[in-house]
Protein backbone atom coordinates (compact mmCIF):
# COMPACT_ATOMS: atom_id res chain seq x y z
CA UNK A 1 0.00 0.00 0.00
CA UNK A 2 2.92 2.33 0.59
CA UNK A 3 3.96 2.05 -3.03
CA UNK A 4 0.51 3.31 -4.08
CA UNK A 5 0.83 6.34 -1.81
CA UNK A 6 4.33 7.04 -3.10
CA UNK A 7 3.12 6.79 -6.69
CA UNK A 8 0.23 9.17 -6.05
CA UNK A 9 2.49 11.63 -4.25
CA UNK A 10 5.01 11.72 -7.07
CA UNK A 11 2.42 11.71 -9.91
CA UNK A 12 -0.22 14.18 -8.79
CA UNK A 13 -1.45 14.57 -12.39
CA UNK A 14 -2.76 11.00 -12.35
CA UNK A 15 -4.53 11.59 -9.05
CA UNK A 16 -6.25 14.64 -10.49
CA UNK A 17 -7.16 12.71 -13.64
CA UNK A 18 -8.78 9.92 -11.61
CA UNK A 19 -10.81 12.42 -9.58
CA UNK A 20 -11.97 14.22 -12.72
CA UNK A 21 -12.97 10.91 -14.35
CA UNK A 22 -14.96 9.91 -11.26
CA UNK A 23 -16.80 13.24 -11.29
CA UNK A 24 -17.58 12.93 -15.02
CA UNK A 25 -18.80 9.36 -14.56
CA UNK A 26 -21.07 10.50 -11.74
CA UNK A 27 -22.49 13.33 -13.81
CA UNK A 28 -23.05 11.01 -16.77
CA UNK A 29 -24.86 8.43 -14.65
CA UNK A 30 -27.03 11.14 -13.06
CA UNK A 31 -28.03 12.58 -16.45
CA UNK A 32 -28.68 9.08 -17.81
CA UNK A 33 -31.02 8.15 -14.95
CA UNK A 34 -32.72 11.54 -15.15
CA UNK A 35 -33.27 11.02 -18.87
CA UNK A 36 -34.88 7.64 -18.23
CA UNK A 37 -37.24 9.16 -15.67
CA UNK A 38 -38.21 11.99 -18.02
CA UNK A 39 -38.89 9.51 -20.83
CA UNK A 40 -41.24 7.47 -18.63
CA UNK A 41 -43.07 10.60 -17.54
CA UNK A 42 -43.33 11.73 -21.15
CA UNK A 43 -44.76 8.36 -22.18
CA UNK A 44 -47.28 8.48 -19.31
CA UNK A 45 -48.27 12.04 -20.25
CA UNK A 46 -48.76 11.15 -23.93
CA UNK A 47 -51.08 8.28 -23.08
CA UNK A 48 -53.51 10.54 -21.20
Condensed summary:
This protein is an all-alpha fold. The chain is 94% helix and 0% strand.
What does this structure look like?
By secondary structure, the chain is mainly α. It has one domain (2-47). It has 2 helices and no strands. It has helices at residues 2-10, 12-47. Helix 1 (2-10) packs across helix 2 (12-47). The protein is rod-shaped, with a radius of gyration of 20 Å. The N and C termini lie far apart (59 Å). The model has no long low-confidence stretch (mean pLDDT 91).
Structure keywords:
48 residues, mainly alpha, 94% helix, rod-shaped
Overall domain count = 1
Q: Percent helix among the residues?
A: over 70%
Radius of gyration computed on alpha carbons: 20 Å
Query: How many strands, what sense, and barrel or not for the largest sheet?
Result: none
Extract low-pLDDT stretches.
none
Q: How far do the termini sit from each other?
A: 59 Å
Which helices and strands occur, and which strands form pairs?
Elements: H1 2-10, H2 12-47
Helix pairs in contact: 1-2
Amino acid sequence: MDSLYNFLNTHTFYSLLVIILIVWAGMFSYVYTLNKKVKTLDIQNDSK
